[in-house]
Automatic annotation (TrEMBL):
Its main location: cytoplasm. It comes from Ruegeria marisrubri. It catalyses: phosphoenolpyruvate + UDP-N-acetyl-alpha-D-glucosamine = UDP-N-acetyl-3-O-(1-carboxyvinyl)-alpha-D-glucosamine + phosphate. GO terms for molecular function: UDP-N-acetylglucosamine 1-carboxyvinyltransferase activity. Residues 7-409 form the Enolpyruvate transferase domain. One of its GO terms (biological process) is UDP-N-acetylgalactosamine biosynthetic process. Its EC number is 2.5.1.7. UDP-N-acetyl-alpha-D-glucosamine binds at R94, R123, P124, M125, D126, L127, D308, I330. The lineage of its organism: Bacteria, Pseudomonadati, Pseudomonadota, Alphaproteobacteria, Rhodobacterales. Belongs to the EPSP synthase family. MurA subfamily. This is UDP-N-acetylglucosamine 1-carboxyvinyltransferase. One of its GO terms (cellular component) is cytoplasm. Phosphoenolpyruvate binds at K22, N23.
Length: 421
């Protein structure tokens, strides 16, 4: 297994291009199942999760061609040979469950493995099932698989979700595009990836309004046609790299970044003493002198502070002047980066869903282990600012969500290299 060697090397300067959003692409790809005509995605990120989703769609009989070095995905699901998402693939990537809604809507049947456990939490699918059953689907759990059918098609309904689940919103909205009649989805998730999905579905002929708000209304249509859609910028990659000049000092411009994607995150960075400026090309982030100030963080559904940036923000708070309290309200086990940061000299106390961080002047490089996607990049950020060398192992986690990390950080002056293992 590869590892990444990072050596603290002072302030960073330059520009980092931000790729298309992994979490938008992972819901846009299954949307191809809703139409027999081709769907083409541009600005697709080159990540292992995208390869996994590609393999899943191909296992169903869909055609997926990765063109232009993977930045364009040309897809067609004219003739499917299977409606089953196998455990082998789903257990590797939970987002595989996003084929459930589209398969049900277009073919009236789907068999999707429950994802099973994940490092950051149990991540059940009850909210997905409740929403699809509200549209008339019959779903039963057998041998670890959800067996779903809608022999007479799906029927629009008014449904309020108990929690604003991102994935459940995506599955229900995609299914409702082909249901008979109108659907009103209440307490819907408001993430930019949902907005991007709806914009793509609308290009395919879907009739939807309210995306980005808590209530999304969908008027079912008989069929959807093909489209070409550009994947929205990845707000989590954007926020991650904004923390590099914050933790190291210097000034870095994140190309493609927009304030609207990272609103509440920018509020916290500004409160910590980091300057963020929106430019023609993106977001310019700088920290002149002196340590950042500690700030408290509570993770919430969008537009609140994103849970996917909690681990990275903790790395910054480990070097802040003062004490910060980070509360993780979305997942039940998302502090696995804390013990690894403590190996670098961080002072962190974890009690249940709350981590209290007392900032130290400087972290010390050490061998550490990535435990999940966002934890892995949190350790790299810590290593960029630490004294000496940090070796982050198990970087296959990193490859799921960040393309060309070494190249992007080297480009702004970081001392970082990938070691083949
Ligand atoms: C999406 O996961 C993202 N993944 C996650 O990003 C992100 O952390 C999460 O949304 C929250 O923003 C993709 O978009 C592919 P949820 P999702 O359904 O849809 C519970 C990353 O690092 N829940 O909003 O699975 C669940 O257990 C990944 O890129 C139920 O209880 O998130 C969790 O505690 C990690 N029942 C909470 O809701 C359900 O049926 C939020 O889950 C569904 C979810």
């Amino acid at each position: 297994m590869d590892s990444i060697l990072v050596t603290g090397n002072g302030p960073l300067h330059g520009r980092i291009p931000i790729a298309g959003a992994k979490n938008a692409c992972l819901t846009l790809m299954p949307a191809t199942l809703l139409s027999e005509e081709p769907l083409t995605l541009t600005n697709a990120p080159r990540l292992s999760d995208i390869k996994t989703m590609t393999a899943l769609l191909q296992s169903l009989g869909a055609e997926v061609s990765a063109l232009q070095d993977g930045q364009v995905l040309a897809m067609s699901s004219h003739d499917l040979t299977s409606h089953t998402a196998e455990y082998e693939i789903v257990r590797k990537m939970r987002a595989s469950n996003l084929v459930l809604g589209p398969l049900l809507a277009r073919f009236g049947q789907a068999v999707v493995s429950l994802p099973g456990g994940c490092a950051i939490g149990a991540r059940p699918m009850d909210l997905h099932v409740e929403g699809l059953e509200a549209l008339g689907a019959e779903i039963e759990l057998k041998d670890g698989y959800l067996h779903a059918k809608a022999p007479n098609g799906l029927k629009g309904a008014v449904h309020e979700m108990r929690f604003a689940s991102v994935g459940a919103t995506e599955n229900i909205v995609m299914a409702a595009t082909l249901a008979k009649g109108a659907t009103v989805l209440k307490n819907a998730a408001r993430e930019p990836e949902i907005v991007d999905l709806v914009e793509c579905l609308r290009k395919m002929g879907a009739q939807i309004q309210g995306e980005g708000s808590s209530t999304i209304e969908i008027q079912g249509v008989d069929r959807l046609h093909g489209a070409t859609h550009q994947v929205v910028t990845d707000r989590i990659e954007l926020g991650t790299y904004m923390l590099a000049p914050a933790i190291c000092g210097g000034e870095v411009e994140l190309l493609g970044g927009r304030m609207g994607l990272v609103g509440s995150f920018v509020e916290k960075l500004t409160a910590a003493g980091v300057d963020v400026e929106e430019t023609e090309a993106g977001l310019k982030v700088s920290r002149r002198n002196g340590r950042v100030r500690s700030v408290d963080v509570v993770t919430e559904p969008f537009p609140g502070f994103p849970t996917d940036l909690q681990a990275q923000m903790m790395a910054l708070m480990c070097t802040a002047d003062g004490v910060s309290v980070l509360e993780e309200r979305i997942f039940e086990n998302r502090f696995m980066h804390a013990p690894e940061l403590m190996r670098m000299g961080a002072q962190i106390e974890v009690h249940g869903g709350t981590a209290t961080v007392t900032g130290v002047e400087r972290l010390k490089g050490a061998p550490v282990m990535a435990t999940d996607l966002r934890a892995s990049v949190s350790l790299i950020l810590a290593g960029l600012a630490a004294e000496g060398e940090t070796v982050v192992s198990r970087v296959y986690h990193l490859d799921r969500g960040y393309e060309h990390v070494v190249r992007k950080l080297e480009g702004v002056g970081a001392k970082i290299e990938r070691i083949k293992g």
